[in-house]
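Handout, page 2. Input:
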Amino acid sequence: MTTIQINLPDELAVKVRSFSNNAEKFIIDLLSSKLNELDKSELLIEEYKLAAIENKQIKKDFAVVDLENWGDDY
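Output:
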């Protein structure tokens, strides 16, 4: 485990202590949760980019039979 020293503003330190007696564990749990959330957001962004590419390919593949000239605004 690595030690990182941080200085919390007094107001934030009071809030942390009001939620938990173990401030270190509380902060570690919050950081882990936030990092997981960020990882999921990045994954979703990548998946949406891939889906957009796939949608363009599907539109291109079916352009010959597209009698209603559908765009990407469906």
